[in-house]
């Protein structure tokens, strides 16, 4: 076993990949979710159906790692090439998608995501790219898994400055009163510490952490006093096969110009 | 139906894109007509109102070169890396570069707004958006989104106003002399976007005989009667990809990402790759045949 | 000249065909408009763009006469095969179509068309096929030309029992208050007597008749006291070429199972 | 993704279409799965709620055979001639045959209702319909249409409720074992209609390898994950046409039109062409190879 060297980032990717169900149609957003999906295909879900916002349906691993869903090597061997009305509404909005994976650069207590602007919208301290289809994933995605590679508390403010992708807004009851569909809203978050869920109020809380991660590590990660259960489940160590595969895929990603955390 | 004018990119910008033009630019991080952006920069257009779903490097260059007064987009970045769209970010953070106004819609709302525009519907229901930044924050399009009560239920429904750009310029795969334009692979929002434009010009990888069009009538994304003029410019979407024609150019995206980190680097990129090259042939010559060979796809004939 | 034998029906077809502009995108509904379109293609508009409700774009005469727009010999050599959202909304509704041709089985004073039911809707005296896309042509079509092969006053009631395709409803002002777009609504009607227009109130009136058609003929055709101008323009006699072509196309139509008036 | 069950038409009706089933049937006077109607008649299904945009001969047969309790359609006729759909007309005029209830939408409103259903939108703006019979007259769908005020303007907007059929059965051109279904030629409302159905079964002209599907991913009208089962039945759409496969059978439409003028003639048609033939192979055998040859199209491989 050469697993002891698994980095928190690699553990995050493997944990996210393990969340993917080979029998569930999965909407994969850009960036780390795409890495997770490739790892999942190689580990346990080779024929999983994945859809992308531009209308691609992918049912097997593509020979080349796409740099984003719109890198059309993602369409190599696709069984369907349609458009965004299909992907965002006929598949995602209509509930044909059972799992949704969305990178969450900045995420708050209620799972609201900001990928637009930190600080005042018209004069931001940090300007981010904007929503793309991320708003749709947050608004309409079933089985929504948020992904963040950060453990910096600036990535987890109490309340985001701009809600690009809606989580539970001010709480579950607010979300449900504003026309959002039942079954939508974030279900889980995966980050380098472990897995998180959302409680009845729609607040983030840890459900399982990687070996060695402490309650203090969890508390330090979030910009609000996060509620931590008395006991935290511990996620399994990656095995050698898992670690080899995630590293191969990360190497492939690097060759495809992905900026990796250690770079 | 008569043949449509076939223009050079230079003529397209000269004749159709005056300063201040409202201009929807096609592509969704693929089929981005970057060669159009180059020519807009060469001719130093100003005060443009640009609409583009996925801004990408194309919009970043226009921002960096100070051509844009207003931008409607769903995101702007360099998806290779990914790295930020540096000019875009600098300008909005007030750290240099010409200022511009931004208005945003989610990709789904943008798509539905274009569908409403294409169909001339007064609005379209869209993604539930109440409480989000897109809904709460407005700049130069205060009526971009609204809400109505569902007449068949009792919940509020988020709706988007129709988007009807004055002029659209879109990259397509092939076109005939009449203006029938075809695309293959995913089309994102483009079918609706093209139909939403009041005037439409297509930039095609190749001009084909109408009989070629007739052999695949399902691939026609815009009929001749919507197209006003044609530009035939192979590699016009480089460094983004053109399905079946060429791949995304990762090294070039990295080069742009690297240089545009500073205003000086961006100026160097513009000088070397846009100004000095003179036109798209010059750009391709600078890129080099070996690079083009590396990117070129050898597909079967459709 | 062997034109003297032109029947009123043949004159109607030629008059309708003459209304077609080779430079205008034309939405052609089923039945006699399709015959007119073929005649127009052969006479003066060979490359006219014609669109059909199922999404076909046709820019030249098809080798075989389609029995309806959904007889897919209509798609033979089509430059585009799309769908009904394209045809009915992106082309017709959005005003990309400049002329619209719609058969009007039963049409009233204000150009409202009934192709649904004569008598009470739930217990009709005569049940007709229903609307298909005819409602869209009446509601959203620009340059709308109605076509009726009938000169029987039962085909022209004062007020139709069921408005399948809206004309001016109770009059132009009513139509414009109900969300219909400017520039829509019937412009003309062609029947075996000649050509008709719609006045400022949205009422049908004759604009030109075929040689030999009298004011009494006109009055007898309509189920209300139609306003007839003091002088009626007279339409030209068909020439030999026109008559030969309309007869060839009618023969082709007959071979393709069209039921013709003389059959 | 696993292979989908491949059923015979008989199994399809046995397993998926009990009496009383709400059933959207595909086709718009082309790709009408008439072989399905034959089998429904053979198995004597009752009280069906049938949704079909263009009713045609298919719906006329179901009405004549007394299978339908409710019908939602945009028109019902025999477009060859054209001649009336005689059974449909007789029944609604109270002149014989089993009664049924009818509800109607224009083709555009039906299309937009299916689009709303496919996208799970609470409603869709549609053709202006105020003052028309469709708007004023309702039977079993009192909420089929409504109106809202345009939130971006001041005019009333006609809207249609989403249509979400419990079960859809559609004719397509080809399908793979996974359920990826493709069509060529015009598609009318079918892409939206298929996606609107809660459960979907496709009847294909041919079963092809998935690699064939991958070679034309733009022609996929419904992805495998929407398809529950597959029937492979060549000529299933006869006497309507199947683009690229076969032509509309005018003599057969005329035969049906002629016989169905009387209840006795209709009964004779059902007996000879449906009951006695036993299944679709029997139907095709009765039609004869010479007739099939006359109708068969010899296209290039797509």
UniProtKB/TrEMBL annotation, chains B, D:
InterPro entries: CoA_trans_fam_I (IPR004165), NagB/RpiA_transferase-like (IPR037171). This is Glutaconate CoA-transferase subunit A. The keyword Transferase applies. GO terms for molecular function: glutaconate CoA-transferase activity. Its EC number is 2.8.3.12. SUPFAM superfamilies: NagB/RpiA/CoA transferase-like. Keywords: Transferase. It comes from Sphingobium subterraneum.
